[in-house]
Amino acid sequence: MSVSGPHGGVLTDERVLVLDFGSQYAQLIARRVREQNVYCQIVRHDLKAVQIAGYRPKGIILSGGPASVYEAGAPQCDPGLFQLGIPVLGICYGMQLACQALGGQVQHAPSREYGRARCTLQTSEGLFAGLPDAMDVWMSHGDQVTSVAGDFEPMAATATCPIAAVRHRQLPVFGLQFHPEVTHTPFGSQMLHNFVMNVCGCSGAWHLGDFAAQTIVQLRERVGPNRVICGLSGGVDSSVTAALLYKAIGSQLSCILVDNGLLRKDEQATVISEFTNHFKADLHVVQGGAQFMQTLRGITDPQEKRRRIGHMFIECFKAEAAKIQDAKYLAQGTLYPDVIESGAAPDGPAATIKLHHNVGGLPEELGFELIEPLRDLFKDEVRRLGAELGLPDTLVWRHPFPGPGLAVRCLGEVTDERLEILREADAILISELKSAGLYRRTSQTFAVLLPVQSVGVMGDARTYEHTIAVRSVDTDDFMTADWSRLPYDLLARVSTRIINEVAGVNRVVYDISSKPPATIEWE
Ligand code: XMP
């Protein structure tokens, strides 16, 4: 569900449009703009200029994308949009498209440029106001703008990319070859701030509180007198979804919690007590552990695990939902990253990285209409919304947990014995992290049980036992992440306690990979 209709200026008179050319980062761009308190909406890349003008945007951003602008069938925009007088910022593919449309040349680069690059700025005005002369930027491209017609002025360069940023001399059109939206470009937010505030002239009056109020009204209108079923996982996403619905429709809400036997230690009890303390809505708990273990027997392939868990989840959910009379809608806490990382973004050919079982499938199977009030939001926006709605801190700040649960952290076969090892190790890790006061400072921390055994020595005996990997990341959008620099003494305590207290583990390792290129979960 969107915040507003395509043309209705419901929440704000100031909006920036992102034209999506299939970038993994289109949503991230939108989020960075919203951080400036400017409402931002993603739209199809092939809208006609007149349709774009109909939105009355203050600015237009052309996203990156996987294609080459000179290939047949590459997604194009209506060149008329450059003549609307509305400021345009092209990012990566978007810059190449703008340059090509306005007379520049784009070619395959001698070598694909991927990762951090040192960028030197040739101006300190407009887009680059207040920035240092040189900075790190994140590049990810195979093509480059190789020459710009006299109409464009180059604004920045890297060692391998002589035209890393441009501005048009007459039109309000700008281009960045690198990605300002990812955290690996430290001054990227400042550039987007400069674009929306200085170049587009936005004032920054949009707030998330508006989103809550508006969404509650919209939910009430849409649901009418009907009943809504909401899948609850105990995570912040489904809790905020339930909270929004509870505020909108109260007793017309029924929640279903499927315990798949893949939850963390004591999680089911915690979720139930938090839920019943907070809401008076109808709660159904399905004890599905045995069925899930049965379907996972002998399975080691990550996608197959997800697929089977997804199917079993649907079965359990369906059986319970059938007991709830007169339900018409199904609510899910799907977020932007779930949509984009599943390749399910409308009009976006972004690659499928993982199958996220909570996206798609469920509603058709069940015959309900789908309600996804958080579909436009990122995790930290959802947290702020949760706080705004009065949810307790323990819920709002709980680290995210994947739908397939511990199954995707138990590499190899999922057995009761291996799950028990993982659960105990994870509980020790989290309790030490909390004692060190770092739980809220990290975004997601968990233990992973590896499918390797290694040699050790305990007392005088040789051991040949399991390895636990500790994963901890810092991120605010979960699309990109860096590994947490946890203090050595904390890591030492975690390692000692896990090896001493969890039978079957003789080695603990720490994962020092960032995303990209690694993902947060190991499967
Ligand atoms: P990755 O591992 O893709 O994770 O970097 C990004 C965020 O998504 C969570 N995640 C999932 N959530 N179903 C979910 O509901 C899934 O299959 C799934 N896989 C990953 C992950 O925990 C992290 O927060």
Strand and helix layout:
Layout lengths: L14 E6 L5 H9 L4 E6 L4 H6 L4 E4 L25 E4 L1 H9 L3 E17 L12 E14 L4 E6 L7 E4 L4 E4 L11 H12 L8 H16 L3 E6 L3 H14 L3 E7 L7 H12 L3 E6 L1 H8 L5 H20 L5 E5 L4 H6 L20 H5 L2 E3 L7 H10 L4 H4 L19 H20 L8 E15 L2 E14 L7 E2 L4 H14 L3 E6 L13
Parallel strand pairs: 1-2, 1-3, 3-4, 4-9, 10-11, 10-13, 11-12, 13-14, 16-18
Antiparallel strand pairs: 5-6, 5-7, 7-8, 8-9, 15-16, 16-17
The site of xanthosine-5'-monophosphate has 17 residues, from loops.
Keywords:
alpha/beta; 9-stranded mixed β-sheet; 32% helix; 15 helices; 523 residues; disordered N terminus; binds xanthosine-5'-monophosphate; 25% strand
Give a structural overview:
- This protein is of the alpha/beta class and 523 residues long.
- The chain is built from 15 helices and 18 strands.
- It has a 9-stranded mixed beta sheet with strand order 2-1-3-4-9-8-7-5-6, with helices on both faces.
- α5 crosses α6 (236-249) and α6 packs across α12 (379-388).
- Xanthosine-5'-monophosphate (XMP) is lined by residues 306, 341, 353-354, 356-358, 400, 402-404, 444, 478, 515, 519-521.
